[in-house]
Amino acid sequence: MKKLLLTRFTILIVLLGGIFPGFAQSTEVVKDAKKVKGQPLFSSDEVLSIKIVADFRAIQKDRGDDPVYHEGTFTYLDKEGDSVQVPVKVRVRGDFRRNSANCSLPPFTLNFPEKKVENTIFKNQDKLKLVTRCRYEDYVPQEYMVYKLYNLITDYSFKARMAMITYEDISGKRKTETSAGFIIEDEDLLAKRHKTVVKGKEPQTPTDLTDQVGMATVAVFQYMIGNTDWSVPYQHNMKLLEQPEIGLAMPVAYDFDHAGIVEASYASPAEALKLRSTRDRLYRGLGYSEEIFMKVFENFNQQKANIYALYEDNLSLNPAYLKRTLQYFDQFYEAINDPGKARTTFMSNSKRKNVGIKGLKD
Question: What is the C-alpha separation between 126 and 173, in angstroms, rounded?
Answer without folding.
Answer: 29
